[in-house]
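Problem: given the chain below (114 residues), write out its structure.
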Amino acid sequence: MKIASFEDIIIWQKSKILTINIYNRFKDSRDFGFKDQIQRASVSIMNNVAEGFERKGNNEFKHFLFIAKGSCAEVRSMLSLSKELNYLSESDFSFLHNLSIEISKMLSGLIKTL
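Solution.
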């Protein structure tokens, strides 16, 4: 199947789910610096996948996927901190952390195929 738009990319779809969940989980947080940072990092994953795809070249796409992978690591780092600060329940942390690991692995796989 030929991917016609970035919305067709499963990594983009999963990173959108991650972003929506992060926004929902942290929407009432009074730690505005933390909330802003984790939200921006999660949005960066999906936006870099989209931007890289739209560049229409494998080398540029790969470059943006590496940036997305870095943002994914930033989200995982922030999630680890959120667990230590008791900002998330164990189940919310586990869901978000596992999803971020899955996205990171998928990014690595796509980078290798390009």
